[in-house]
Write a structure and sequence with these properties.
The complex is a heterodimer of chains A (302) and B (534). By secondary structure, chain A is mainly α. Chain A is built from twelve helices and one strand; from the N terminus they run αααβααααααααα. Chain B folds into four domains: 142 residues, no CATH class; 276 residues, no CATH class; 47 residues, no CATH class; 26 residues. A two-stranded antiparallel ribbon of chain B has the order 2-3. The chains are: A mainly alpha (302), B mainly alpha (534). Chains A and B meet through β1, α4, α5, α6 and α10 of A and α10, α11, α12, α16 and β1 of B.
């Protein structure tokens, strides 16, 4: 009974807290720019409104266009449920679930890209190409980061590898993972979530033709994904276990919002990179993760 | 096909070779069923020549085997240290058949030009014969020190380059053929790893890797056959193999579109489908190798990252081929008129797609078979367990599948509630989008191909727009079989050049022949004289 309750609590945390993060980011950006900005809960209102709205579909779209975002959402949420929350949800892990976690995110990417191609427009094709091409590099970084964590703890289950801190490689890993977080969640400097009418977008351009409940699924999934990366980043680099479960959880949630604030600050002070430079930055994050891996290795040998 | 079975059951080297040769020849006739086309004939010839180069190595291999062991009987010969170098002969001979990079050059043209049901069998089963031979004989032979490393390195190169070439293709059957090169690479990686485990006598990850390799062989057979059948059904109804001429086929061929999507997801190694389970086992094995307490294996960490990267590349490749064929607007008239094939075309594909799903949800059922094959390959691992929670993975897969179906239905119902409005693709306000404005095959692959230009060496034909009222501009970019045309081609041309030069000596003039004789006798007598002095 207890694991079931625990699971429901975690699910509720993921589903309910996640839409807050984009609100926080927007609030920070507004504050830096001296505007009042939208309410923190804006995404909740949007989701509710979209869920009640009807749908307009492109004439070229097949039923898969409607189903794919739902499957993508399932991919993100199941991946989130594989992630322990500071002592909560340690029981569900098994050996190799870290790889399953990565591949579930890949499944989400597949579905989003597939749905975007349904519309048959040049614009959305462009977004798909960029997303999938950059994903090759960020997948390599993520894989390396997971390996670094795994090698240092000698286990490949999320529960085992996230609990202890990473020591010397933590800084490398933190910077590397934060860069991947920005890339995977389409934030500045990889992508500008504010623009809607420029040929410069990655993620937004893939969902131009989504509307109503479909768009709600996409937006909510995206916010869960952002929270997922933030939680992963915090748990991989800060020794929460030493603080005990209660305090650890508070620090974790604080850290997640800290990440959101940081994203907002970066977005306020940086411009988007030219597309030629994006692979360079991603390769840099890969190298940081590789160095973290080497540190983990040497630490294990010594 | 009978020959194939013969190869599998023969326990005598001579019979094995005869079966092998018969199988190679029958495959040649299957490839060239459509003999009237020039491309088919040249593909068949290339296949025949490449296979026979491989068979030549096998002849050398078996000759060595017979002369060292004194008989044609096959069986475990691990104790005999003198057999070690034979492994390299087997690697080349079987490697050509398996189509591992860089000796894959015959594979894309052979598989794309064969009729589709033949390609399904060729890609699903025939190239596995090469792997079968390698597994068989690596189990029987003592392994030289570098064997595992070479296999692992070959596999890693093959896994990345195979899929990069696949992404570059504009012919969907060629694309699938290159994807086979990638999967053979993954299998080679796993086999190489398990060979290393055998020489290091580390059973935990060796068992995982070997079981993963076996699993992936099986899975690749299923999903690749499915994809080739799907491709065959598209080819049958539209008559073109060019990705850029199709599009929007889901209207005419909903069944094919569905099963092709399933096959694509399985080929990318996405969860819920069988492709993931094999890759997952292999990745687990490499991870255990990299974190082994006694002797961690550095290359194994790289192998895991290579697996991830080739998976991401495969994802781009299959989104490309799936969406270009089945989604969006039709680019040409044949694509508009496409119709589903008959019942006999549809049901085999549906059956294979169901196997793809079941293989992902119930991998636990394969566990006894996998363990038995591990025991046969390396008898000292008979007692070892497969240290991977296949049941838990199957459970998560089942959960994801159920949730996906449930949520999919929910969103469908919710969207259809007020009636779905249809309108043209909005796309930030395009007034009248045409099907030619869609992203095409070349533009889709463009970003990644830019990164790999050094290896792909595409041939590019550009006519830029000029003047105030420019005529049509052209840009044709084509990625050839680079190993064949850019590496092997020049080498063979060099051989041809030298041999034509040498041929000039033979021209039918009796005087010169007499001169050759005189020179030959003089040289011989010089040698004899010099030898006599000593």
């Amino acid at each position: 009974m207890i694991p079931l309750v625990e699971g429901l609590v975690r699910l509720a945390m993921w589903l309910l807290i996640a839409p807050l993060l984009p609100g926080v980011i927007n609030r920070v950006k507004a504050w830096v720019a001296g505007r009042r900005g939208p309410p923190v809960f804006q995404l909740y209102y949007d989701l509710g409104k979209l869920w009640r709205k009807g749908v307009v579909l492109s004439t070229t779209a097949s039923p898969a266009f409607v189903v794919a975002p739902a499957v993508a959402w399932v991919g993100v949420v199941v991946a989130a449920m594989l992630m322990p929350l500071c002592g909560l949800g340690l029981g569900v892990g098994f050996k190799g679930d870290a790889l399953l976690f990565l591949y579930l995110l890949a499944m989400t990417r597949f579905c989003t890209a597939w749905a975007a191609m349904e519309t048959g427009s040049a614009f959305e094709g462009m977004g798909v190409v960029r997303e999938l091409s950059y994903a090759i590099l960020s997948e390599a970084s993520l894989m390396t980061a997971v390996l670094a964590l795994g090698i240092q703890t000698g286990t490949l289950s999320m529960a085992g590898m996230l609990v202890p801190s990473t020591g010397a490689g933590a800084v490398l890993l933190a910077v590397g993972l934060f860069t991947v977080l920005l890339a995977e969640n389409s934030r500045v400097p990889f992508d500008d979530p504010d623009t809607h009418l420029e040929l410069t977008m990655v993620h937004e351009v893939m969902i131009l033709d989504h509307s109503g409940p479909i768009l709600a699924a996409v937006l909510h999934g995206a916010s869960v994904k952002l929270m997922l990366f933030a939680v992963f980043l915090i748990q991989a680099t800060i020794p929460l276990e030493a603080l005990g479960q209660g305090l650890g959880l508070v620090v974790l949630i604080g850290g997640v919002f800290g990440v959101a604030v940081l994203v907002g600050v970066i977005e306020s002070f940086m411009a988007r990179l030219a597309f030629r430079r994006v692979p360079l930055l991603l390769v840099t994050s890969l190298l940081l993760c590789v160095f973290a891996l080497l540190v983990a290795w040497k630490g294990g040998a010594a | 096909m009978l020959n194939l079975w013969w190869v599998l059951v023969s326990s005598n080297g001579l019979h094995f070779l005869m079966g092998w040769e018969g199988f190679t020849l029958s495959a040649y006739f299957l490839i060239t069923l459509d003999r009237a086309r020039n491309a088919v004939r040249s593909a068949g010839l290339l296949y025949l020549v490449a296979s026979h180069v491989g068979t030549m190595f096998l002849f050398a291999f078996f000759t060595g085997w017979v002369s060292r062991t004194g008989g044609w009987d096959l069986g475990s010969m691990r104790g005999d240290e003198t057999l070690k170098p034979l492994f390299w002969l087997a690697l080349v001979g079987f490697g050509i058949k398996a189509g591992v990079f860089p000796v894959h050059f015959w594979l894309p043209s052979a598989h794309s030009n064969a009729p589709s049901h033949v390609s399904a069998v060729m890609s699903g089963v025939a190239i596995k014969m090469g792997i079968y031979g390698l597994v068989r004989f690596s189990g029987w032979l003592p392994l030289p020190a570098g064997a595992g490393w070479v296999m692992l390195a070959l596999g890693m190169v093959s896994a990345v380059m195979g899929v990069v070439f696949a992404l570059a293709q504009n012919d969907y059957k060629r694309l699938l053929a290159y994807c086979s090169v990638e999967n053979v690479g993954i299998i080679f990686m796993a086999l190489g790893g398990s060979m290393l485990a055998r020489t290091r006598e580390d059973a935990t990850w060796g068992v995982l890797l070997f079981a993963g390799a076996m699993m992936h062989i099986w899975n690749h057979g299923v999903f690749k056959a499915l994809l080739f059948l799907g491709a065959g059904s598209v080819l049958h109804s539209t008559g073109t193999r060019e990705i850029s001429r199709l599009g929007g086929l889901w209207r005419g061929m909903p069944w094919t579109a569905c099963v092709f999507a399933v096959g694509s997801a399985a080929a990318c190694g996405l969860p819920v489908f069988n492709g993931f389970v094999g890759e997952w086992l292999i990745a687990l094995g490499f991870f255990d190798a990299a974190s082994a307490p006694a002797e961690p294996l550095g290359l194994a960490a790289m192998a895991v990252v290579v697996l991830g990267v080739s998976g991401a590349l495969a994802l781009a490749t299959f989104v490309k081929v799936g969406s270009m064929l089945f989604l969006g607007a039709a680019r040409t008239q044949p694509a508009v008129d496409a119709k589903e094939g008959g019942r006999w075309m549809r049901w085999p594909m549906v059956g294979l797609a169901v196997v793809c799903v079941l293989g992902g949800i119930f991998p636990i059922l394969l566990r006894p078979v996998l363990l038995r094959s591990v025991g046969v390959w390396n008898p000292s691992w008979v007692a070892n367990e497969l240290e991977a929670p296949l049941a838990a993975l199957g459970g998560v897969h089942a959960g994801v599948a159920l949730l996906a179906v449930g949520l999919g239905i929910l969103v469908l119902k919710r969207s259809a509630r007020g009636g779905i409005r249809r309108s043209g693709t909005w796309d930030c306000g395009y007034a009248k989008p045409t099907s030619h404005m869609q992203y095409g095959s070349g533009s889709f692959a463009g970003v990644v191909l830019g990164w790999f230009r050094w290896a792909l060496r595409p041939s590019i034909l550009i006519r830029r727009p000029r003047g105030y009222f420019p005529e049509a501009a052209i840009r044709v970019e084509e990625v050839p079989e680079t190993v064949l045309y850019r590496v092997l081609g020049p080498v063979l041309e060099g051989v041809l050049y030298v041999s034509t030069r040498v041929r000039r000596l033979q021209h039918g003039r009796a005087q010169s022949y007499i001169l050759y004789l005189v020179i030959g006798i003089l040289v011989l007598s010089l040698i004899a004289w010099a030898g006599g002095e000593r």
